Structures are given as structure tokens and as C-alpha cells.
Amino acid sequence: MIKGHGGNVEDLAKIHNCSVDEIIDMSSNINPLGPPDGIEEFIAANLNLIRSLPQPDAADMCAQFSKYHNIPVDMVAAGNGTTWFIYTLATALRSKNILIVGPTYSDYFDSCTINSIPCEFYISDESTQFEPNIDKIEYMLKDFDTVIICNPNNPTGVFIPAEKIVKLVEKYPATYFVVDESYLPFLPDTKELSLISHQTSFSNLIVLSSMSKIFRIPGLRVGFLSANPLLIQRFMRYYQPWSVNSLSQAVTKHIFENRAVTEPFLKMTRSFVQREKKIFEDALSQCRTLKLYPSHTYFILAKITGSMKSDKLCQLVGEHKILIRDCSNFRGLSDQFVRFSLRDRETNLRLAHILQTTTK
């Protein structure tokens, strides 16, 4: 397991001898507005659910997801976050050689390592602001039976239009395309942009979906995998009963059934992200020692253009009890890169001021 994921608030609190609540976490990619109204109250009112075993296969969760996305229920599996699926991919798909489109989330590589599956990276070029070159990816495909794409990507925030991926999926039916859409709900017109709507047409397209980020419930660990029914059966061979706990299943059902609350929440989140991201970027527009890369999401990748390294910048920002993400352990990046996940405007502008004064 990689050391240096976002959200290590306990470590920073120990360094500064303060409580975790005093740390402002701008390193982990979770909705700054969440969770939606009523979720924590719902959990408190349903604590008695922990007295009984949950559904062994989270069937009701799958049914809710299939109804929401208008796909057959036998095309859905629910998991303990998307992490379980990521670490089961290679085994369930019987992959022999995996291509990872990077720089991206480290667990894709870690899953290959754990399963002893050879893998290689296609690394997007910094000169093109990390936009993947689809032609280059296609050129590499002949050597791989599985491709993993995070879309929108973490940590770059780059989004590949669905039609570009669909063309590859259609042209290479013997290759599995695994697309992680965990951050897609932060974009407008999410359903139209998602590859889930294309899955009934292809047997080689696997989509990962997360509720952790958009609804800010990462501690509940809620994720889905959608694919051709035969692929779902393959994954279910390795599925451990009761993988999704009772509270997670209940909260997920509550979210899907209460659209009068969740849909306005999603709309408000998307507007907030676009508005506050621009304000934050404008606040740093005159900072010559930081280069911000365009992002479709609420987190922003930045390059330190001066002599300072990422660990030093994280340390200096940490002295203000703010945690940002050191991106030096992303394959394809270096110790010049950091990532910021937005919070409220006051906090964002405070960070912008700290960055301006710290990186001079």
C-alpha cells in the first residue's frame, strides 16, 4: 500500500500537537459541501441496523443503482467502495498485461503488484496540460488486454469525452476498458457524460462509480461496478458476503430514494465547484512560482516553478494547519507537484494567500 494518500490529518495534528478538528484537509478529494442535509441524522436514527447482518450481496443497493442509471440489475455489483473492485480487477478479468493511463491514482498500480500482473503506464505529457493522446494510447493497445482510465482523472482533473473512449471500446472488443468515474458526478450533465449509458452495447466496458466523494461519505465505503452480466458473474465469484455494511446499504438506499434532496444538492455542488474554482484560480493568477493546470473537477494540480520542492511546500502550508497533497509519489509527476482540493471560499482564499507568500 502506498504511503502518502490524501487525508492524513492525524499525522499533521500530531506534528502540531493539536486536535484533528483543527486541521483543514485540502488534500483529500471529497465534496466541500457534503454530506447532504439529513444524512448524519439518518445514520444516527438507524444505528440499530448494526445489530443485524446486512444483505450478503447488497442486492437492494444494486437495484437502486440500476434504476437510477436505467440499466439491468444484473449489470451491477455493489462493493466496499471502488477499492475492492480495483484490487479484484486483474483476477476477475484474468488480465495478463495491463495498461494504466497516467499520471493517476496509485491503487491501480498497487493492484497489479499485489496480483503479480505485469503493467505499464502511458503518461500524459505535461506540455499538453496532461491531456491524454488517444492516438498514442491506441498505438500501445496491441500489447495489453486491459486498460485502466480514471475519468475525470486524479490528480490532473482532465476529462476525456465519452465518445473518444467509446471508439476504442468498439474498435478493440478483445480488450477490457476499465473506466473509473468516481469524480464524474462533479461535472454538469453527468448522466450524459457517463459511459454507463453505453454499457448495454459492449461486453468489454467496465465502469466504476463512487458515492464516497460526491456525497462526502468516504467512511461508509460505497462503490459500484457496472458491466456486462457475464463480467459481473466473474467478479461475484470473488465477492465476500456482507462486504457492504448495514449502515452503508441503508444510507445508499436513502440517497437514491430521496431525490428531492439529493438532486438539488448535486446541482448546488456543481455550481459551487465551477464558481469557487475560478475565484481560487484568479486569486493565484499573479503567482509566478505556481502553475495551475485546468481541471474539470474541484481539485487542482499545480507545479512549483521555483526551487522549492513539494514536501517543503506541504510542510510550510502545514504550519498553518492546512493539509495539501504532495504529488511526488504519483508515477509521471515529480517533487515539483502538489494538489489542492477546494473548500469554502474563505478557506480557499486563505490558502491562496499562504501559497503566494510562501512560494516567493
What does this structure look like?
- Helix 7 (162-171) links the parallel strand 5 (146-150) and strand 6 (176-180).
- The two termini are 35 Å apart.
- The chain is built from 13 helices and 13 strands.
- The chain has a 7-stranded mixed sheet with strand order 2-8-7-6-5-3-4, sandwiched between helices. Strands 9-10-13-12 form a 4-stranded antiparallel sheet, covered by helices on one side.
- The mean pLDDT is 93.
- The protein has 360 residues and is of the alpha/beta class.
- The chain folds into 2 domains: 9-30 and 266-358, Aspartate Aminotransferase, domain 1 (Alpha-Beta Complex), CATH 3.90.1150.10; 51-257, Type I PLP-dependent aspartate aminotransferase-like (Major domain) (Aspartate Aminotransferase, domain 2, 3-Layer(aba) Sandwich).
- Helix 4 packs across helix 5 (107-114) and helix 11 runs parallel beside helix 13 (345-358).
Lay out the secondary structure:
Blueprint: H1 9-15, E1 24-25, H2 39-45, H3 59-69, E2 76-80, H4 83-93, E3 98-102, H5 107-114, E4 119-123, H6 134-140, E5 146-150, H7 162-171, E6 176-180, H8 190-193, E7 205-210, E8 222-226, H9 229-236, H10 246-257, H11 259-283, E9 290-292, E10 299-304, H12 310-318, E11 322-323, E12 325-326, E13 337-341, H13 345-358
Parallel strand pairs: 1-11, 3-4, 3-5, 5-6, 6-7
Antiparallel strand pairs: 2-8, 7-8, 9-10, 10-13, 12-13
Helix pairs in contact: 3-10, 4-5, 11-13
Question: What Rg, in angstroms, do the CA atoms define?
Answer: 20 Å
Classify the helix fraction into a percent range: 25-40%
Stated plainly, the CATH topology of the largest domain is called: Aspartate Aminotransferase, domain 2
Q: Could you give the order of the helices and strands?
A: HEHHEHEHEHEHEHEEHHHEEHEEEH
Which structural class is indicated by helix and strand composition?
alpha/beta
Number of domains: 2
Number of helices: 13
Strand content: 15-25%
Q: What would you give as the CATH superfamily of the largest domain? A: Type I PLP-dependent aspartate aminotransferase-like (Major domain)
Low-confidence regions? none
CATH class of the largest domain: Alpha Beta
Bulk shape: globular
- What's the rounded overall pLDDT mean? 93
The appropriate CATH architecture of the largest domain is 3-Layer(aba) Sandwich
Largest sheet: 7 strands, mixed
Strand order of the largest sheet: 2-8-7-6-5-3-4
Let me know the number of strands.
Answer: 13
Report how far the terminal alpha carbons are from each other: 35 Å
